[in-house]
Amino acid sequence: MSEPLHEILYCSLLAPQCPTDAVGHIVSQARARNAHESITGLLVFDGMHFCHHIEGPRGNVLRLLDRIEADPRHVEMKVLHEGALDVRRYLRFDMGLAHVEETDHVEDLCMLDGAEALAQFLALRPRLDI
Ligand SMILES: Cc1cc2nc3c(=O)[nH]c(=O)nc-3n(C[C@H](O)[C@H](O)[C@H](O)COP(=O)(O)O)c2cc1C
Question: Residue 110: which domain range?
Answer without folding.
Answer: 5-127
